[in-house]
Each structure stands twice: as C-alpha cells, then as structure tokens.
Amino acid sequence: MRLMTRWLTEDELDAWLRLAGVMLKLGPALDSQLQRDSDMTHFDYLCLAMLSESGDRTRTMSDLAGKTNASLSRLSHVITKLEKRGYVSRCPSPASRRVTMVRLTDDGWGVLVKAAPGHVETVRSLVFDGLSADDVAALEKIAGHIVERIEASRLDSTC
C-alpha cells in the first residue's frame, strides 16, 4: 500500500525554509563566536553551562545528555575532550557503579564564567533582540513542540 505524500502548503514551505535557515546558520554563528573568544564549541559551552546549573556542579551522563539534547555517544566524546582540558572530571556514581557522574572543575567554572558574557550577548543579538515577550513565548512553545516530536519519533523507531 502506497501512502499519499502530504505536501507542504505554501505557508508551511515558507516557514520550513526559514526554520531550515535558522538550523543551518545559528549553530555555526554560535560556534564561531565561542571558538574565537573562548576556544570552545557551542556544544562544549552548553555542557559546561548545564553542569554549572546543578547545585554541586555534577550530573549523571544520562541527565547531561538530556539537558544538552545529545546522544550519549556524542556527549561521551565531548566530555573526554573537556576532561583532557581539565574542565570536567568523571567518576562512578556512589549509588551505582554503572552510572557515570560528570563534575565541572574549578578550571571549567572559570572558563565558563569568562565565556558567558560574550556568548549571551551573541545569543541576545542573533535571537532575542527585536522580539516581543509574546514572540519569545511563541518561540519557546514552537521549539519545545519540535523537540518533543523528534524525541517521540526516536522512541517510536526503537520499538
């Protein structure tokens, strides 16, 4: 049985092309600023930032993967790189040796504190300047919807 293609409407196509432009341009723009100013990628920064938001600057690898929207394999590769730079350390969880904990080191905290103002200014100028409070709320809702759909499709494909 052949399914009918549900082609995009003209409005959907216009919105899709704009979103595709954001996906293709925003990551490299954030990477460029962080590489230039702090010698790290946006994903490196995001990992450090998510660790810093935990009270003891420590999270499980699984929790950090969820917070950064990353696969465990991608996260493991980046954590290894950050560990070599002295920004994070890994250790087994006291609750279960099968669970790996990642902790932001003092050096990692220092790098993050130094990188944050430039990164936040870049995010503000590229994403939020010129948006109303309603626009920001709509952006959060739409982005959340898209991420939820992606996550749900991954779960469906593993069954």
TrEMBL record:
InterPro entries: HTH_MarR-typ, MarR/SlyA-like, WH-like_DNA-bd_sf, WH_DNA-bd_sf
Gene Ontology biological process terms, A to Z: response to stress
Residue ranges occupied by any HTH marR-type domain in the UniProt entry: 10-148
Gene Ontology molecular function: DNA-binding transcription factor activity
PANTHER family hit by this protein: MARR FAMILY REGULATORY PROTEIN, TRANSCRIPTIONAL REGULATOR, MARR FAMILY
Protein name: MarR family transcriptional regulator
The organism of origin for this protein: Nocardioides iriomotensis
